[in-house]
Specification:
235 residues, mainly alpha, Serine Threonine Protein Phosphatase 5, Tetratricopeptide repeat, 9 helices
Length: 235
């Protein structure tokens, strides 16, 4: 029988995203949206209906309440609850799009009790494709797709570099912040903002911005995160 030296058995535990972490993620996202609701409203007022911040704020408050009420036993159940709640409580295009994101995410977590970086990367890729399919938007159209695409690329790169999950999520939050800010010089090609034509240039997309807050909150959701108590800034 092979006996290991005691020092060799003291391996650093692998960090995974669990059900309670997901609940914390949604709670932090709700807090971030509420904190930034006025800024999101101003962004949307410039190129849209002006209700993105209020709608997402209402939806995320409903998500937190529903998760607390139902307390789903698994990751898939939690993500389905988020999807259904956002789809039913958020007006405009944002509700269905965020609903599609979390519904596709739920499909990837069936039978899983925790998520590694590889699992989370796959989840984000599939969820991203769900949003693309429903919204029929592409990268460069000045939508939340630009932010989600940046998240996918960042997580893939972190996986290739074999980074730990907290470091990968911190890098993803920064990548999505840059992507959201990068929508400002774009001309909108989808949604109400597209009606403005060249006049949409110079304004940051509100959906891309709230999507950044989603990943900023995820980076803070793990107990081992390097800055668990520091809310992110809008890009």
């Amino acid at each position: 029988m092979l006996c290991l030296h005691p020092a060799t058995t003291q391996l650093k535990p692998r960090i995974r995203l669990t059900g309670p972490d997901l609940d914390r993620w949604m709670g932090l996202f709700a807090e971030e949206i509420h904190r930034c609701v006025d800024q999101l409203t101003e962004l949307d007022r410039a190129i849209g209906d002006g209700d993105h911040g209020v709608n997402i704020d209402r939806g995320m408050r409903s998500v937190v309440a529903k998760l607390d009420e139902l307390n789903p036993p698994d990751l898939a159940g939690r993500l389905r609850t988020v999807s259904i709640t956002l789809t039913s409580s958020v007006g405009g295009a944002s509700g269905p799009l965020y609903g599609a994101f979390f519904l596709q995410a739920a499909h990837t977590t069936v039978c899983l009790t925790e998520l590694s970086l590889a699992d989370l990367t796959h989840l984000t890729e599939v969820a991203f494709q769900g949003v693309v399919k429903l919204g029929r938007a592409e990268v460069g159209d000045k939508t939340m797709v630009d932010t989600l695409h940046a998240a996918v690329l960042s997580l893939r790169l972190s996986g290739q570099r074999r980074e730990a999950l907290p470091e990968a999520l911190a890098a993803c939050a920064e990548a999505t912040r840059r992507a959201a800010a990068g929508t400002a010089p774009m001309r909108a090609k989808k949604g109400r903002a597209s009606y403005l034509g060249r006049r949409s240039i110079g304004f940051q997309d509100p959906g891309a911005t709230s999507a950044h807050l989603l990943f900023e909150s995820l980076a803070r959701a793990l107990p081992s995160s390097t800055n668990p108590n520091q809310p992110g800034d809008l890009p």
